[in-house]
Amino acid sequence: MYDFKIEAADKATLYSDLALAMQGLIGDETDAVANMANAAGLLWESLPDLNWAGFYRNVDGELVLGPFQGRPACIRIPFGTGVCGVAAQTRTVQRVEDVHAFPGHIACDSASNSEIVLPLVRDGELLGVLDLDSPKHARFDEEDEAGLKAIAEILARVL
Ligand code: SME
User: Fold this and answer.
1) Rounded to an integer, what distance in angstroms lies between the CA atom of residue 157 and that of residue 138?
2) Ligand 1 centroid vs 56 CA: distance in angstroms?
3) Tens digit of each residue's pLDDT (9 = 90 or more) over 65-94
């Protein structure tokens, strides 16, 4: 049984604890599905105010739903469409304070109000994206972005 208790007073500590826990959870496991599934579970348990946490994989130039926590979501997203598709196409983090103002946002869960999507890149190849949604407006700030970039780097090594 894994029982990580991550309750930090400040975000910097939260994300450094989370990175250590993520590394420990992955260990020397190389199975991508297992690692994405456990990563989604750990993010979901550790970060407050989420209504979705999970992965879309790059399958032949299209984003296809991967392991996640939250409500069932849309399965296929073309590159360039929605927040995930723009993150995949541009390979840049998309941190969106109000998803309703994002052109082409795909509303998988009407409870979502803000979102952050991080591209997962290894050796120049886009493996997929990590997507976190929140019912809170502007849930993700610069510290979340920095902390999650470190998590995305850990994950990109083992997907
Ligand atoms: N909102 C995303 C779609 C995925 S769901 O949030 C799980 C988007 O616009 O790409």
Assistant:
1) 29
2) 9
3) 999 999 999 999 999 999 999 999 999 999
Q: Which helix (H) or strand (E) holds 78?
A: strand 76-78
Q: Which of 92, 133, 134, 140 to mutate to test the pocket of ligand 1 (most atoms within 8 A of CB)?
A: 133
72: exposed, middle or buried (Cβ count in 10 Å: 0-12, 13-18, 19+): exposed
Partners of 54 in the beta sheet? 68, 131
- Ligand 1 binding pocket, CB closer than 6 Å: 52, 73, 77, 82-85, 105-106, 108, 112, 115, 131, 133
pLDDT in tens, 18-50: 999 999 999 999 999 999 999 999 999 999 999
Whole-model pTM: value is 0.95
